Fold each of these.
Amino acid sequence: MPLSPDGTATPLFCVHASSGSAYSYLELARLLGADQPVYGIEAPGFDGDREPVRSLHALSAEYAETLREFQPDGDFLLLGWSLGGVIAFDMARRLTAAGARVRQVIMIDVSVPRVAELPPEKEIARRFLRDMLSAVGAPPTALDRVLAGQPDEATSEAIFLAAESSGALPAELDADLLAERYAVFRAHVEASFGFEVTEPHHGRVVHLIASESPLQYMRWDKVATGLTEHVVPGSHHSIWTGNSLLRLAGLTRAALAGAD
């Protein structure tokens, strides 16, 4: 998905987060400058063309192969936020093992994954709704009241209908759209909870960490031997706005400039 395809520099490939959409990188791509080509990787199933993929190994392998076909003779620059960072890290390992050169992996606020039981459906739906509200710039305060009124065994469909009827959602987020997008999000949550990093990557990795994120879940130093870390003011979602986004873009530009 071309986000900012013009320019002569080595292209930067940005991997989707749990939503499956690469749209979150659009403003960052603009801030990286006219000479920096930027492409997004969108998930299978996001536009209804395929079934969502529930394996991070499968996503990583498919994306690595796609990039090698798209850019068979070039070096690679990878970036990913949240789940996208985990996928980008694994892609870097795969590409390197196949003989390609990965000049830089930029991870944005990425927790180290571990194999664990899936959270209850209500909790997955809560995470999804907060992500969706953040994406459209809507506050999540009313949503908390809606979720508090739902039983623990509530289905995602019931939660979305309750959220829509309560007025907690902006008009563009109705229950039907939420159900469609949730299928991809839930598949990626399942992929994340079934994956752990078992092999290190020895190339350059820059991790940009939100200041409000718990550092104990961000310890990539054991598997990323070329790791550099920076802190960006804000939360997992707010770093994509205002001055935090400007700092994010500045650190990304510096990382790309240092990826020789």
Amino acid sequence: MDPFVRRFIRGSLVWLGVGVLIGVAMAVQPAAAAFRTAHMHANLLGFVSMMIFGVAYHVIPRFTGRPLHNPRLAEVHLWAANLGLAGMVCGFILRVVRWELGMAVLAVGAVLSAAGAFLFIHNIWRTLDAPAPRPAALPTLVR
């Protein structure tokens, strides 16, 4: 398994933990319901999307028989997606207490997160468009 695939999957598990902790905080302290958007993004963009990214990067090259177009781009995607999501979650939480700062952090996070998603789209699309590998030559029979 490629290192970036493992990191996407581990990242998804970390985001699940973050989403669960925010959810527990909302259940215990009703005023924390103001953080529901952060909770939702941690779970959906964090856990679900990061898991999908990791599994797709591992499975699609194997299903198509083509190498991943650009593994380095997948690594950049990993950082952009996770840093962007961290900015979004922090921005959603910050805007409850400091609206302007929260909105600025949220905007930067959203742009990074979107950039990561477009890197994924590009990388997978190019992987699917790659020419099929040539089949190995069959051994010739010697008589």
Amino acid sequence: MTPNTWAIREVALATFYDKKTGKAKIQLQNLKTSGIENTATTVYAMGGRGNNRIVGFSGDRGGKVSLQDAIFTNEVIAMMTGNDIKSGQAPIKYRDIIKVIDDKATLKYTPATPVNGLNSVYTLSEDQVHLEEITFATGTLGDKQYKIEGKELTFKTGEFTNGTELVAYYTTQTGASAKQITVSSDKFAGTYELILDCLIRDTVTKQDFAAQIQIFDAKMEDNWNLTMAAEGDPSVFDIPIEILKPVNRKETYIMTIYDEDELV
């Protein structure tokens, strides 16, 4: 028999379903926390000596779901931004430390558009600070200038001693397996059906039972953070969700407690 009193501790599994097609989009199996906050507003008729509360009127029923994922998933980020994840080659800006050998220096990668030279090239101090700029030569190679062919930079004969460190900034291309996450000004997070599968424990028998929360219209909010830090725990991904009222029913969500052994 399913319990009347129960405790809950384990994090939920969250599954998102497309509202238009009804197909499952993704299940989050690495959540750190999951929870539902039920909200409403109560206003009171007040009066008499002391201006006491006489009767209350409740409304503005709503709710929020808070999911915190231990990992970042491209599909979820796409759902939060309203943009699809793009695959394929993409431009990447790169900082390259190179050394002069026999009046030449070789880049690690191939510049995407070397016709007008690289973004910028500088000599480096011992503590890796920019010193003098070396510019692209459009004609005859002069002092503090370079020419480029493929990955190879050429300098004026004898200008730099062997081992001189330079830094070059340029744009190269990724491979075809690269993925692009885009945040644009005209796209926003969508609304999905959300299923939270939970584990609860009967306070009497101490046996575990399943619970499923079905949220019919879960609107992903557009405020989210990507935190990068040099210390502490790895960054987590907070997924804020607003519970909306469905068009064709009064229930905003339903929680079903059941025994998995009784599933037909």
Amino acid sequence: MSLDQRSAEDFGQFALDLHDLGGVEETVEAVVQFARQAVWCKHASVVLITRGRRPEIMALTDPQLADLYHQQIAAGIGPLLTVVETGEPLLIPDVTAEARWSPQWSEQVMAVGIRSAMHLPLLSGGHAAAVMSLYCDEPDGFEVDDIAIAHILARHASVAIAVARNDASMAQAVDARKLVGQAMGILMERYDLDGDRAFDVLKRYSQDNNRKLRDVAQELIDTRKLPH
């Protein structure tokens, strides 16, 4: 597929569709499906990177890819982790000619029917917040135009996923504040406490039990009792 066949209007509409989806899972799934069509690859996936820099498998077009990622994560080595560490795109024209990782990696990838791969970091704040991976069942499966299209897609996906994750974090923060406020109200009414003292009680239970404040608040709301 030539680059001029994938018009700017197509990518513009794709970007609008991504932002309209809202949720992280929906956004990631849309990226994977569009990538497979835009680049005409056999498999595609998006793996999110958590705050602890751990990969979190979010969307893939073949469940066998999950096994490949779990094997890389367990071994602590592989192209996915290399892209996370470097923040740089990685093109693998022929997996049989790759010697940067363990021999087992090539065997595992070939067993899934993959012969060439492309991994692109979805950057946020200069770091890989996710990795989009595309796979072909033939060596040298990606032409120059395919690579260009994938890079354009990665830029759109980076923005959309970052926005979706930020919206999700804000929604969770608002929800947590509501829960804590409700729990404080219960403590204030039951034990005749002021707001500061009620919050201190919740915080102490959170620290003593090594649990998130919102979880302590939720349990108090559900059971009307403080956690043991």
